[in-house]
TrEMBL record:
Classification via Pfam families: Fe_hyd_lg_C (PF02906), Fe_hyd_SSU (PF02256)
Stretches assigned to the Iron hydrogenase small subunit domain: 393-449
Gene: NARF
Organism: Pogona vitticeps (central bearded dragon)
Stretches the record annotates as Disordered: 1-31
Lineage: Eukaryota, Metazoa, Chordata, Craniata, Vertebrata
Name of this protein: Nuclear prelamin A recognition factor
PANTHER family: NITRATE, FORMATE, IRON DEHYDROGENASE
Biased composition (Basic and acidic residues): 1-17
Gene3D superfamilies (UniProt xref): 3.40.50.1780, Fe-only Hydrogenase (Larger Subunit), Chain L, domain 3
Family assignment from sequence similarity: Belongs to the NARF family.
Length: 459
């Protein structure tokens, strides 16, 4: 049987490699090479500024800029179009993994509960031709558990190891980019080595899931739906690439806003779409319920690690955390006292102004924290510029507040209670302390020379 595109002439695209740092780039070119009349119709132009993505002008090369802008909706439709052609050698299994902080965005846009929005988003993506849609929270389970374990190890050895504490969270790619390329060796030894949920999901999809499906990693096209543009750059990291198969763990990142743009162009409302449950990594089983982690704006690393450390190190059960707000609501701390002494001091530092203040404290030897949850976006992940920014570039505060309230209504689950994670530790990783755990769930950071006067950058 012939497919609908058999008689159509193939053509190739000439990539325009403009590298001006603050020049807007059309990630969806209305004059693209694919003049297809199938349902993969042309989308409106979307412009992204590098200032939306990264900490400063020192953080990106022109080659990376080009590769970032190649991650857009058109990449999704390119693969969908190839899958409709007769040449099966070019077919890909399309897998989409959705970040939990993206779901409240769709819930708010369509006046749905977060659970309803998740199921309808899954249905919409499958109507496009996506084969599998996964919830990324199973990868966040791994990331939090490995971070907890690493913190306890660092705490127990901090008197012998100079860079053991403070430990900084590793889930935010904007923060990691800034730390590696601007702060360098001052900070990178302190960053937790656990991969972010996005990249652990990449390892799961291109490793465990590929083997379950009897596929080579390069036969899967893996897309992440995320709240911020920084995730696009994270997907390009060399340590998240398998040379044997010429395959990145994550092939493309689309922001929540870019997915919403597809819906607008297709004149689709999620309210009118039937619900379909997320897939799991375990055959025909479906996700039974949507869950979140402690923390209204992020994956809750601070809360989970604090409670775990209090129990593991000091045999203390902490039910609720009481924060002390410092300079602003995005810079706050929480402490644990034992026998009249402060034994744990954690902080949350969101946004680059607060990050800079924390780093300056560290440089002066005045950083007394044991752990800091660092996020590049003021207000946390829900406030990612890929979903919470208005056309004038200002944050949509009403939308963010609505998303926070919706996200808070999702039930909380401890990572330790996820039986699938324990199963994967044994079946996929050969135990909780194996070499494969280090290879699949952890990474290393570069220590490039910092830019001149980098600590004096004003955000």
């Amino acid at each position: 049987m012939k497919c609908e595109n058999c008689t159509k002439k193939e053509c190739s695209k000439k990539q325009k490699n403009g590298d001006q740092q603050n020049t807007p780039v059309d990630v969806l070119d209305s004059d693209s090479e694919n003049h297809e009349t199938s349902e993969f119709h042309r989308l409106a132009n979307a412009k992204i500024f590098l200032s939306d993505c990264l900490a400063c002008d020192n953080c990106i090369t022109s080659d990376e800029a080009v590769r970032i802008f190649q991650q857009n909706q058109k990449e999704l439709f390119r693969v969908l179009s190839l899958n409709k052609k007769c040449d099966t050698s070019k077919h890909k299994v399309l897998a989409v993994s959705v970040c939990p902080q993206s779901l409240p965005y769709f819930a708010a846009k369509f006046n749905l509960s977060v659970t309803e929005a998740a199921k309808k988003l899954c249905s919409f993506l499958k109507s496009l031709g996506v084969h599998y849609v996964f919830d990324i929270t199973i990868a966040a389970d791994f990331s939090i558990l490995e971070s907890q374990k690493e913190f306890v190890q660092r705490y127990n050895h901090h008197h012998q190891e100079e860079h053991a504490l403070p430990m900084f969270a590793s889930a935010c790619p904007g923060w990691i980019q800034y730390a590696e390329r601007v702060l360098s060796s001052l900070v990178t030894p302190h960053i937790c080595t656990a991969k972010s949920p996005q990249q652990i999901m990449g390892s799961l999809i291109k490793g465990y899931f590929a083997r379950q499906q009897n596929l080579f990693p390069d036969k899967i096209f893996h897309i992440i739906v995320a709240p911020c543009y920084d995730k696009k750059l994270e997907a390009l990291r060399e340590d998240f690439y398998t040379p044997l198969y010429n395959s990145q763990d994550v092939d493309c990142v689309l922001t929540s806003g870019e997915v919403f743009q597809i819906m607008e162009q297709r004149n689709v409302s999620l309210k009118e779409i039937p619900e379909v449950a997320f897939d799991t990594l375990f055959g025909e089983q479906k996700e039974s319920e949507l869950i979140r982690y402690d923390g209204r704006r992020s994956d809750g690393y601070l809360e989970h690690i604090f409670k775990h450390a209090a129990k593991e190190l000091f045999d203390t059960d902490v039910k609720e955390l009481t924060y002390k707000v410092l300079k602003n609501k995005d810079f706050k701390e929480v402490t644990l006292e034992k026998d009249g002494q402060t034994v744990l001091r954690f902080a949350a530092a969101y946004g680059f102004r607060n990050i800079q203040n924390m780093v300056l404290r560290m440089k002066k030897g005045k950083c007394s924290y044991h752990f800091v949850e660092v996020l590049a976006c003021p207000g946390g992940c829900l406030n990612g510029k890929g979903q919470a920014e208005m056309e004038d570039g200002k944050p949509n505060r009403a939308l963010v507040k609505q998303m926070e309230d919706m996200y808070a209504a999702v039930p909380v689950r401890l990572p330790e209670t996820n039986g699938y994670v324990q199963k994967l530790y044994q079946e996929w990783l050969e135990g909780m302390d194996s070499v494969k755990v280090q290879e699949s769930l952890h990474t290393k950071y570069s220590t490039e020379k910092p830019a001149a006067n980098s600590l004096d950058i004003k955000w």
